[in-house]
Amino acid sequence: MSVAEIEIYVEERVIRYAFELLTNPLWKRNYDIFDPGDHDFEVITSGNSLTSLLDGMANTGMVELGEVQLATYLAEKTFTGQPSFQNGLPSLIAFPFGCDTANCLIRYKGELSVDAVTNWFATTILSLPRILYYSKDSLLQSFVGKSGPHKVKVIFFSETGERAAPFLRQAALNYWPYAAFAFVPWREEESSFWWNVYVYFLSFLSLQQVGH
């Protein structure tokens, strides 16, 4: 394809996408999640919340469709070799460590939510361990009891149920010999239970200090 043909092709896709964005509630929701602001439609994007979650873990960037050569280079290809955005925009890709060409990039094809994208990045790109959720009933037996008495227990409470951010999973990997990490869904009706647990541990620690 010539540059002129590529520009026409990309312009047609932008128009088609703009129409879909205005008429498809799901696409509109996804577009709002990534908060692209005043930019053109992106091939690679990372909204403010996504960028903050990946801060320190990856370099994030955005390619506008106006950057014809780069957008074409990174886009999916049809069997004829033409660039395609058949899965819609934004389209997300990642270059794993050591990858510097389009031949080894990894393309994200899952749900366009911040939680799903960051989980994909941490699991598929960085190969970081997952931090599991436990209920108040399963926490003691399945987490505390099985993580070893020599490890510090690090417990996060979450109101949203979102999976652990990459930097937390990196910390879990770094401190694996010394600490075990878990998530617990926060429910208001269980607050008294967790308060009693907190008071118990404070009392336990005080007794330990007195004993020494």
Would you mind describing this structure in some detail?
Helix 1 packs across helix 2 (25-34). It contains eight helices and eight strands, in the order ααβαβαββββααβαβα. It has 212 residues and is an alpha+beta fold. The longest helix is centred in the N-terminal third of the chain and has 21 residues, at 3-23. A two-stranded antiparallel ribbon has the order 1-2. A two-stranded antiparallel ribbon has the order 3-4. A two-stranded antiparallel sheet has the order 5-6. It is elongated. It has two domains: 3-125, no CATH class; 139-211, no CATH class.
What's the quick description here?
It contains eight helices and eight strands, in the order ααβαβαββββααβαβα. The chain is α+β, with helices and mostly antiparallel strands and 212 residues long.
